[in-house]
Amino acid sequence: MGAQLHRILRTAIIRGELVPGQAISEIEMSKRFSISRQPVREAFIKLGEERLIEVMPQRGTYVRKISVKEVLDARHLREIIELSIVREVTEKHDASLIKTLRQLIAQQQKVKPGDSRSFLALDEELHRTLALHAGRELAWRVTESIKAQMDRVRFLTFDFATPMPQLVGEHAKIVDAIESGDAELAAQRMQSHLRAILTSLPLIAERYPEHFVDE
Amino acid sequence: MGAQLHRILRTAIIRGELVPGQAISEIEMSKRFSISRQPVREAFIKLGEERLIEVMPQRGTYVRKISVKEVLDARHLREIIELSIVREVTEKHDASLIKTLRQLIAQQQKVKPGDSRSFLALDEELHRTLALHAGRELAWRVTESIKAQMDRVRFLTFDFATPMPQLVGEHAKIVDAIESGDAELAAQRMQSHLRAILTSLPLIAERYPEHFVDE
DNA sequence: ACTTGAATACTTGTATACTAGCATCCAAAA
DNA sequence: TTTTGGATGCTAGTATACAAGTATTCAAGT
To answer: Which nucleotides in chain C lie closer than 7 A to a protein CB?
Structure first.
C-alpha cells in the first residue's frame, strides 16, 4: 500500500496535480485513500528523500517548489551518466537494440499532439532501454530518481509549447549515431538533447514563478 | 529515532558487525534499542532501498550478502561521477581547496595502522570535500549511497591486508595533479585510485565466500 | 518408516491510540 | 492601539494492538 501510494503521489507531483507549496498531511491522504496513516507516512518519507515534498516535524508537509539549482544539478548528473551509457551501447554494435529503439521512436511519432503523458512515458522508456542494455541497472535507478525534478519542469513546458516532433527527431538522430558506431557522435547528440532544458528552464521559471522557490 | 537507528545499522552492516545472511527482525531491534517497531521499520525501509538488507514480507529481514556484480556496478558509476568532479575542481584552481586537501592527507598519515575506521572516515571526507567544492551536492549524495557497497568490501580488505600508506600516497598524487591544473592527469590518477578495488575484490570474494552471494 | 496436517511461533503489514510540539486566534490587560 | 498570554486545533512522531501470511515442529495416521 505504501509503495503504491508513493507512486501515485509521485506522478501527481511531477504532473503538477499537487501544486508546489501546497500543504498535504498524513491524515488528509489517509482519508482520501481510505488507508491508515502508517502507509502514508512511509510514502511521505520516500517522497521526502526524492526532494519532492518537505516534511517538517510537528509543523506540516508541503509539496516542494521546484528549485532551479536542483534541476540544474540533476541535469548535470544525468548528463554525466547518460553520456557514459550511450558511449557504451554504441561500442556494442547490437542490432537488436537498434531495432527496439526504432520501434520506440515509431511509437513516439504516433503520439497525438498534447498527449504529453504518453510521450514522456515513451521518452523514459527509450532512455531506460539504453541504460539497461548497457547493463547499468544501478545507473538507471539513480537516473530515474533524479529525472523527477526535470520532469516537473517538462510538464510545465508542455502546457504552452509542444516541441514534441523536434524531440522525436533528436531521438532518431541519436539512434542513427549509435547505429553508425560513432560513440563520440552519439554522445554529442545525447548531450545537446539533454541540454534542451537549459534554454527552456529560465522561461518556465519566469512564467510560473509560483512553482519555483525564490533563490 | 528512525533516522538515528538507520545510521547505526548502516555502519554496523558496512563494518560487518551485522554479518551477511544474518536474520534481523523489527521486534529484535526495537527491544535492543528500547524503541517501538515503527522507527525500526522506517530504518529498515531505508536500508532496503540502499540494498543493505532485504525485507521479505511475512518471512523476515536479512542482511544482504555482498553481490560482486552490484559492487562493480557501484564502482563504475562512482568512477563516472568522481572523474567528472575531479576535472571540475582542477579547472577551478582554488588554493584554499588544495590546503584543505593537504590537511586531510596529513591527518590520514597520522592514522595508526589497523585503525581502519578512522582512515575510511578521512577517506570519505576527502572525496566529499572534492564533490562539495565542485558544488555537486546531489552527486555527493548519490556517491555516498552507492559507496556503501564498496565500503563493505573495504572493511573486509582491512582485516588481512592494510595498504593504507599506499592509499594515502595515491591521494597525495591526486592532489598534486589538481594543484598542477592538469585535469586529465588528475582524472587519470583518480581513476586508477578508484579501480584498486577491482584487483582486491576477487581475492576478498574467494577468502570470505560466506559474505558474498553466489552468482 | 514415511507422509500428511494441524497447531504454534515466528515474521512483516496495517490500523489505531497516544505524545509532543508548533501556529493561530482571540481576549484581556497595559 | 498594542502587546501579551493562554486556549485550541492542527501537525508529525511514537507506541501499541491487531491482521495476515510463512516456516517449523510434532504428532497422528497410513
So the answer is: 10-17, 20-23
Q: What is the crossing angle of helices B137-160 and B196-207, to 10°?
A: 50
Give A37 CA → C5 C1' in Å: 39
What is B68-211's CATH topology? Answer: Four Helix Bundle (Hemerythrin (Met), subunit A) (1.20.120)
Using the Cβ of A50 and the Cβ atoms of chain B, whether some distance falls under 8 Å is answered with: no
Which amino acid appears at position B192 of this protein?
A: S
What is A2-63's CATH topology? Arc Repressor Mutant, subunit A (1.10.10)
* pLDDT tens-digit series, residues B43-58: 999 999 999 999 999 9
What is the predicted ipTM?
0.91
Cell numbers 596529513 correspond to B106
Is A26 near strand D, with its CB below 7 A from some atom of it?
yes
Q: How far is CA A98 from CA A106, A172, B86, in A?
A: 12, 10, 34
Name the band, by pLDDT with cuts 50, 70 and 90, for residue A2: confident
> Which part of chain A has CATH 1.10.10.10?
2-63
